[in-house]
Design a protein that fits this description.
This protein is of the alpha+beta class and 275 residues long. Helices cover 49% and strands 13% of the residues. The chain has one domain. The chain is globular.
């Protein structure tokens, strides 16, 4: 196991523990708090311009005033630690292709060893760390047991095809539905689910952070996964995340961004197990 990816999961668990006291908030509000905290941490490590900071502050103003302290306090500090750890993990996108965590065969073996079996599998195209942390926190509010696994899938180019092209060796369709099927068979699951919702929102509404968050419908997506799960166990994962990039016009959402940007999460996919 890569020590850095293991540290990532520890940092994420610490963030979820901090969020425990507000886990009963509406999903949209909780997600925005997590999103803004991570973005603030990313901007503090990036040569951000005044308009970038202003855009973030405008988003923070839409969070209920009694919860804004999370964005500037202990949640922000944990997010800062998370991003620094993440940058060390995938800072060299070319070396990353050689990491065992970029190999689906390794990931399959890891999941077999560490999970063995789950009842359901959900693959969320382009989900990213804010969404996975939100889902983990909300499941915790339902007295379920969320665990972010210590291993991650590294996607060095941050696009779906890096994963799906590897499905050929498993005789699966080279599409995310094939990945969902592979995970279902690997973990002896009864059902698999795949949704393109987040990816479609990134491509259609990513030009504006405010529009992206409004259009994401994270509360609806969580309800879909919660209803799918019922009282069963489930593995929730994704093919890559998304990036938050900056230019002279402001901040925007994209995936597979090749330059330096405040948030570069398209290179990583987490595994969230709910029991």
């Amino acid at each position: 196991m890569n020590q850095q990816t293991s540290s990532l999961s520890i940092n994420l668990e610490e963030i979820i523990n901090i969020l425990a006291e507000i886990r009963y908030l509406p999903t949209n509000t909780l997600h925005k708090i997590i999103f803004c905290s991570i973005l603030r941490a990313g901007l503090s490590l990036y040569p951000a311009k005044t308009q970038h900071i202003s855009e973030l502050n405008k988003l923070i103003q839409t969070i209920p005033i009694s919860y804004r302290g999370f964005v500037t306090g202990k949640l922000y500090l944990k997010a800062l630690k998370l991003i620094k750890e993440f940058k060390r993990t995938v800072e060299d996108r070319y070396r990353a292709t050689l990491l065992k965590e970029a190999n689906l065969q390794y990931i399959q073996d890891y999941l077999k060893r560490n999970l063995g079996k789950v009842d359901k599998v959900a693959v969320l195209d382009c989900a990213s760390i804010p969404e996975i942390v939100t889902f983990a926190t909300k499941f915790k509010s339902l007295n379920r047991h969320p665990t972010i696994l210590a291993e991650t899938f590294i996607n060095p180019i941050g696009v779906t095809r890096f994963l799906t092209q590897q499905l050929k060796i498993f005789n699966q369709r080279t599409a995310l539905s094939g990945y969902a099927q592979l995970l279902k068979e690997t973990l002896n699951a009864e059902q698999s689910y795949k949704t393109p919702l987040i990816d479609l929102t990134v491509h259609k509404h990513g030009v504006s952070l405010e529009e992206f968050l409004k259009s994401l419908k994270i509360q609806t997506l969580f309800k879909t996964i919660k209803d799918l799960t019922g009282l069963d166990s489930i593995l929730i994962t994704h093919d890559h995340g998304y990036d938050i990039a900056a230019n002279d016009h402001g901040l925007y959402i994209i995936h597979g961004y090749k330059g330096e940007c405040p948030i570069n999460f398209s290179k990583i996919a987490l595994f969230l197990a709910i029991s």
